[in-house]
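hey can u check if this looks right to u? its 149 residues, i copy pasted from the old doc so theres a chance i mangled smth
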Amino acid sequence: MAGLLGKALQRVVVGLGRLLWTLVRLAAGAHPLQTGKKGPGARITGRTAVRIRRDWNDHRIGTARWSDLANPRWDMVSGGTQVRTPQPFVHAYVWCNKVKGDIAHSCIHGPGPHNIKVCIVKKDNSKEVWNYLMKIVGSKPPRRYFAGK
């Protein structure tokens, strides 16, 4: 009988500890429900948000749904101004009306929507998004791969 009470008490203590930890995270604003981050192994769907830039070093970052991105690949030429990047970055194409947020595109050169080239940077995206993207585009090629392009 004493063994059953000990196990029951242990479960209550563990449950209270978990509850307390959840309350601390909620109070600190660090709970996944507040941060929008998903746990490890989160599934990538067509609705998954991918953070994008027009150029690799642009401070303006927007988002697009995974399903709106087309033809992701490694490249060393950015979209828009066609500036050469210092190393290969993943680029993809998206219709400008599908982008949420402020990126370097204005539609002043003609009526939209336009299919624009965007850069997908590792530090902007979740580990799950980046790992899924790497399964599609493969590992980063050396710079010499782009020497003649």
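The beta strands are 49-52, 62-65, 70-77, 84-95, 100-101, 115-120.
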